[in-house]
Protein: Endolytic murein transglycosylase
Organism: Sutcliffiella tianshenii
Amino acid sequence: MSEKKSKDYIEEKLKEKHHEAKIVRRIVFTVFVILMLVLTGVIGGGYFYIKNALKPVDEQNKETKQIEIPIGSSPTTIGKILEENGVVHNAKIFRYYVKFKSESGFQAGEYAFSPSMSLDEIIGQLKQGKIMQEVVFQVTIPEGRQLTQIATILASRTNIKEEEFLEVVNDPEFVKKMIDKYPSILTDDVLNEEVKYPLEGYLFPATYPFYVEEPTVEEIIETMLQKTVEVVAENEDLMRQKEYTPHQLLTMASMIEAEATNQEDRQYIASVFYNRLEIDMALQTDPTVLYALGEHKERTLYEHLEVDSPYNTYLHTGLPPGPIANAGVSSIEAALKPAESEYFYFLATPDGEVLFNETLEEHNIDKNKYISTN
């Protein structure tokens, strides 16, 4: 073979090898991309599958189903029963959720579950043994109510006297018992000597069905505490991010509840409170003063601002010792997700509009314009 032919032959072979290597690289790259897409799809699909499985099966379907939970049923068995009856999406997810939350003490019986119920609501009923019964009566506890007002509402709907309710709800031994039973929301913070009523703000505002004609004070209180457990659990991640305890959260939310009417106002009022806390400025919110006085007033006067109480946020910086009323979901969400603002002042006008300002000078202008000094 001549030298030229030999050279051409070598070049041809090199070209073939280069072409083959190029094809191999394309194949490897294509396989890699496909594998990454598949892996991403599996991870993403798994995330959305689990997220969906944790939601109610059908939030709009309030129709209840009579479901029997046999004696000795494990979370696995209960999950299968609930899945078969269309109450949860997936039995395994239910079991893992129960394990993750360290829930136990489920009771056997015949229950009324609906597809609209959350996993926490289902678990709460299984722990309390709320079996299938006719609702005898319902009690609605509105948002922003204090313990004394809740006592009045219950006295009008049950045979329980206001004094009886307040005696139980403020009994130190009973409160300690509730702390032991509901440690996810109740801590020794409520036993602080500066706290006016230990369970103030912990009885969640909602409509409560009762299945007996004369529930005890203890049963009523525990029903409300369980609802608070469920609501706080739903906001656990945000609480952790803000490094808030349930007591701090409910305290902040109670002030927002007392000051606001609509959701947007709540978020901006929350931003004012947080902006003030950040610079160690007094919160100066009138509802805390009225709570300290223990009476409702149409207007908060300067003389009222001098009341000697740890709840008086004109005299003391930081959060008050505890909640001043119960707070609904909107105020709790505002406490955890405040608006971003530079506001340090707000003022409610006589027609209900809330005005926000960055400076005291601007605030005083609005105050002189809308609030009578007579």
User: Anything to note?
Assistant: The first strand starts at residue 65 and ends at 69. The chain has a mean pLDDT of 85. The CA atoms of residues 43 and 174 lie 47 Å apart. Strands lie at 65-69, 109-113, 137-140, 207-210, 345-348, 354-357.
